[in-house]
Amino acid sequence: MIYVVFVEPETPGNIGFLARTMKNFGLSDLVLINPCEIENDAYYKAMHAKEVITNRRTYDSLQDFIENEGIDFTVGTTGEAGGSYNVPRIAVTPEQFAEALNVTGKIAVVFGREGDGLTNKEISLCDVVVSIPTHEDYPILNISHAAAIVFYELFKKEKSYPVEELEEASTIEKNGLLDCMDEIIEKLGYPEHKSKNASLVFRRIIGRAFISGREAHTLKGTLRRINKRLIEK
Amino acid sequence: MIYVVFVEPETPGNIGFLARTMKNFGLSDLVLINPCEIENDAYYKAMHAKEVITNRRTYDSLQDFIENEGIDFTVGTTGEAGGSYNVPRIAVTPEQFAEALNVTGKIAVVFGREGDGLTNKEISLCDVVVSIPTHEDYPILNISHAAAIVFYELFKKEKSYPVEELEEASTIEKNGLLDCMDEIIEKLGYPEHKSKNASLVFRRIIGRAFISGREAHTLKGTLRRINKRLIEK
């Protein structure tokens, strides 16, 4: 179970955006620590995730929340990853965090104030700190953007298979394509090194193209037809 | 060079959030297609990235932009990844996209309207479509959240791997390939809808494969030779 905790939010709109991105990645348990008033803008920005806000829990402090809910694992987020001299803020990336997180139990992902992030005391309550790699010119992300990235990494990890039902062509289907193209190339009367190169280039392109099963089928149909017409010559 | 294109934005605040997340990940070239009025809220939400908005370019249509700026590679984003039956919207994940993109040249990452995304016509102008895996209950991300995730993947990749020298094939070289393949397909005696589909699939595959200039050259040689042999029949 994953709780999303927002410490002392100052802007209702950010609560709304956070709720929306939570639902986008299948999360529903929002906890607000000593928040600003929840105005209409929070619900407006949440769009189709209003119930995430309605079902929120509220606590006075991060420590209260951790103790009362019996949290097993607390993850802080920070825009200021410390160097080695600032041990509490030594951070992992969202990717490292998602890879490492195979914990069952109650997990809290904690986001700090819009202006000041989490205090050192709050950071010290965390088991791990996550920091998103950003450009040095402007390293501070909006809180809902940071959340979207962390949730995306968690979701990506949890779902072993990404976009839609779309099945990538199997190795067998792809090899079928390559074999077919090789037969065509053989008939072109190339010197051997040129044949080899043409075959290699086609193989690389197919390898890089994330070709779907359906596309492999269509392309193979085309290649077969080409091959047949070359034979009939 | 990476352009970030927002097609027909309706909300100044979203333009601001987009500008902020661009700067967070080291991007600065914003293009707005037929935008709403840029009100104060855009600059307010941009925080320390106001200059991204000030330096924006504006065009009347996506096609105008692509042609006028001489874009080499156009990447669409969509919340509605097609299944295998909707070829134009077959999509790769942000991670797959970032992994494949090791190119120089002018690249455009295109985000659609807040409500309706990109039209089919706009999608058809794209070489590849990126879709973020999300939860089925609420798959539609706020545009700046989607952008943050795509930029994050690009930035992550760029940081960990040096950009290759390998120059991506220019649009002209790629179009040459597509034309050549279309000539071949025409000779295959397919009914029209099959010809169209075969052509589209080839275009998609070439679009997604991040083909280098050298590879385009080799593949074109092969296609030309095939075409010639088909003529001689």
**Main β sheet profile of chain A:** 6 strands, parallel
Q: Tell me the domain tally of chain A.
A: 2
Query: What shape does the CA trace of chain A take?
Result: elongated
If you average the pLDDT of chain A, what whole number results? 86
Q: Return residue spans of chain A where pLDDT drops below 50 for at least 5 consecutive residues.
A: 160-166
Helix content of chain A: 40-55%
**What structural class do the secondary elements of chain A suggest?**
alpha/beta
User: Based on the structure, what is the oligomeric state of the protein chains?
Assistant: homodimer
Q: Tally of extended strands of chain A?
A: 6
Architecture per CATH nomenclature, i.e. the level-2 architecture of the largest domain in chain A = 3-Layer(aba) Sandwich
Top CATH class of the largest domain in chain A: Alpha Beta
